[in-house]
Amino acid sequence: MSQARREEAARPDDAACPGDAARPGDAARAGPRVLAAAGTGLLAAMVVAQVVSGVRAEPERLTGAVVVLLAASAVAFSASRAGTARAAGAFAAAVATGYAAEWIGVRTGVPFGAYSYTPVLRPQLGGVPVLVAVAWGGMGLAAHAVAAALVPAGGPARIAAGALALTAWDLFLDPQMLRLGLWTWHDTGPYRGVPVSNFLGWLVVSALVMAVIDVLLRASGPGRAGRRRVGGRQERAAPSGGLVAIYCVMAVMETVAFAAVFEPPDRLVAVAGGVAMGIFAVPAGRRRWPR
């Protein structure tokens, strides 16, 4: 047997060739890509559910599907950047914070004002629908990503930006949920029956939600969120484009729904909510996807 044939026989298969070997980083990169793809699919499904709910006779029947799909998409996008454990922890903390605020709120009127939930949304724990707490977590992650895009340095300014961005969403949420009969205010207010105290309470609770998310996504470790290793050094990474997209999609869909889909339309809410969310969505989108 010639030397060339002996060398060929000694090689077990073609996979052992150096040129065919899997790159060490391929598996590590595959996980985030899969999570981002899952987030995109869940976001698309949420859009479909939202559209269907807007044109059917009983839209409240799809509220649960919309909220769950939104939250699942947000967690998947967050996990693609920060890792599954940190993303799940941040989401769970935001859900717990929102639930605690709602539980206190329906009993004391603090911090939102006196209100109560109707039996429409189920299941409920202590008079608070579980879906409401889940919504705090899903949109909390999206608003935090918007704030991270606008205030990359972090700190109190990011918490404030995120709190304002999340509260802007409630300019749509409260009028819509009142239409669907999901909750009632004991004392009505000037904005489609919503009292001013509600928005002040939203600012406070949203700030707490932003703070817990920020702390948990900045947890120390080699793969901590918001950092990436480039040429042996740590650099600040861009926030999740998927989470920013969730916020932008919600802003557009709610604006269109109130302006032209809901019966009757409410152009005041469309303008107020569209402008308020747009103040954050547009610059965050431009910074996340610069031309």
What is the secondary structure topology, with strand pairs?
Elements: H1 3-10, H2 24-55, H3 63-82, H4 84-108, E1 115-117, E2 124-125, E3 128-129, H5 130-150, H6 156-179, E4 183-185, H7 196-217, E5 227-230, E6 233-236, H8 241-261, H9 267-288
Antiparallel strand pairs: 1-4, 2-3, 5-6
Helix pairs in contact: 2-3, 2-8, 3-4, 3-5, 3-8, 4-5, 4-7, 5-6, 5-7, 5-8, 5-9, 6-7, 6-9, 8-9
Transmembrane segments: 34-55, 61-80, 87-106, 126-147, 159-179, 199-217, 238-262, 268-285
Biased composition (Low complexity): 15-27
Protein name: Carotenoid biosynthesis protein
Overall shape: it is globular
Q: Regions with pLDDT < 50 over 5+ consecutive residues?
A: 1-22, 24-28, 220-226, 228-235
Oligomer, anyone? single chain
The tally of domains stands at: 1
Widest sheet, order of strands: 1-4
Radius of gyration: 23 Å
Number of extended strands: 6
Number of helices: 9
Amino- and carboxy-terminal Cα gap:
62 Å
What percent of residues adopt helix (DSSP H or I)? Answer: 55-70%
Which sequence of SSEs, written as H and E, runs from N to C?
Answer: HHHHEEEHHEHEEHH
* Beta-strand fraction estimate: 5-15%
Residue-averaged pLDDT: 86
Main sheet overview: 2 strands, antiparallel
Class by alpha and beta content = mainly alpha
Describe the structure.
- The protein has a two-stranded antiparallel ribbon. A two-stranded antiparallel ribbon has the order 2-3. It has a two-stranded antiparallel sheet with strand order 5-6.
- It has helices at residues 3-10, 24-55, 63-82, 84-108, 130-150, 156-179, 196-217, 241-261, 267-288, and strands spanning 115-117, 124-125, 128-129, 183-185, 227-230, 233-236.
- The chain has one domain (17-288).
- The protein is 67% helix and 6% strand.
- It has nine helices and six strands, in the order ααααβββααβαββαα.
- Helix 2 (24-55) runs parallel beside helix 8 (241-261) and helix 6 runs antiparallel to helix 9.
- By secondary structure, it is mainly α.
- Mean pLDDT is 86; it is low at 1-22, 24-28, 220-226 and 228-235.
